[in-house]
Amino acid sequence: RTFDYPSPNSSIGSRSQTTVPQQALWFFNNPFLSEASARIERRPEFDTAIDDQLKITNLYLLLFSREPNASESSAIRNFLSDPETNFQDLIHVLLMSNNFIFVN
User: How many CB atoms lie within 10 A of CB 53?
Assistant: First the structure.
């Protein structure tokens, strides 16, 4: 129901396309994404990076096959400046992003 799967009891010509808050909450609380974030953080290119900017660049290259632009880098540095967040939180957020989920 979270992702609007059609009912198997009726014939539907086309599936409706909706985005609802429950979808984001499902991704946010999903143990698979938490484990994926932890595994990505343990990769050698993040473990040996000497500064956060290099980690961010490596993360973008891994997830999006491109480097972050200036506004993305600034937003990420701002996100990481909060003492409540860590690099694994950033990875989790990026795995939930439209840039990761949809291929252009």
Answer: 13
Task: Map tokens 């993360």 to a residue.
Answer: 59
pTM of the complete model: 0.76
Q: Are 104 and 65 a contacting pair, CB within 8 Å?
A: no
Query: Quick one: 80 exposed, middle or buried, by C-beta within 10 A (0-12, 13-18, 19+)?
Result: middle
Helix (H) or strand (E) holding 3: none
Token representation of residue 33: 């994404």
**Residue 34 phi, psi dihedral angles, 5° rounding:** -65, -45
Residues 16-48 pLDDT 10s: 666 667 777 887 888 999 999 999 999 998 888
What is the Cα–Cα distance from 91 to 57, expressed in whole angstroms? 12
**Residue 87: C-alpha distances to residues 22, 26, 91 (Å):** 25, 21, 6
Q: Are 44 and 80 in contact (CB under 8 A)?
A: no
